[in-house]
TrEMBL record:
UniProt subcellular location: Cell membrane
Domain ABC transmembrane type-1: 67-289
Name recorded for this polypeptide: Carbohydrate ABC transporter permease
Organism: Hamadaea flava
Coiled-coil annotated spans: none
Main location, first listed in the record: membrane
Topology of the protein relative to the lipid bilayer: Multi-pass membrane protein
Family: Belongs to the binding-protein-dependent transport system permease family.
Amino acid sequence: MKHGKWPLLATFLLPPLALYAYFVISPYAQTFVISTTDWHGLSRNYNVVGLDNFKRLWNDEHIWNALLHNLWLLLLLPVVTILLGLFLATMLNVGGRSGRITGVWGASVYKLIYFAPQMLSVAVIGVLWTEVYNPRSGLLNAGLRAIGLDGLAQIWLGDPDVALAAVIAVMVWSNVGFYVVLFGAAMQSVPKDIYEAAALDGASRFATMFKITVPLLWDTIQVAWVYLAIIAMDSFALVQIMTRGGPSFSTDVIGERVYDVSFGDSQFGYGSAIGVVMFFLTLTITIVALRLTRRERIELS
């Protein structure tokens, strides 16, 4: 059996590794090559232009505009989603009435409701919320008018001042349920004695959350932060479905730039250069997020 270990490992590992290399690593490598050309995507003829595409990026105002919107997503999406997820998970798992350290009644039903958006595809979410934001027949404006807040009703996805905020709100709505369940599962491993001791000492729920729950769940929060940072950088699908980067490029993101330049303008070389920059930005942000959120692990005995 000892001598047969390596053939067995090779049998099970080499085929999936070969498939991964062909379908994942190979396209990445081809993108790096294409980014140094002026290929238009349809013909076999192209010229090698070296770093000209990357120099062009530096002076492209649309790229800087898209990067700014990705930065807003990077700042707001993880913070709002994690804070809201922690709050809801705390209320569901240790937010019982009268100071009892128990979950609220019907917590499993609430978790199912919060998690429901995860069962929908991005396409369905985009179409659904486009209709909700519809200025004439949308549920949001109809609800505001029904309660006498007509002045707050507006063209949500057609106003450059609020379109990006509307898209961010949908991204938070579609992701927070997953982290409610994730944080809730992590809280189940925290001994109830800790919460009971804090309650006996007179600690408020706010203090309990930030001085007990957050430190003990820090590893889970770190993972959530990295995933949400990647989602913030890769927000193309929802933006494309809901706004296509408009109005007036007010919701444009890097992924939308890659799509418009490559498939709209048939500049696959330049689009690949944008993709390469996006790849390194996402990689850098992930590494920085892991380092900034690193801290000593708290062990429970």
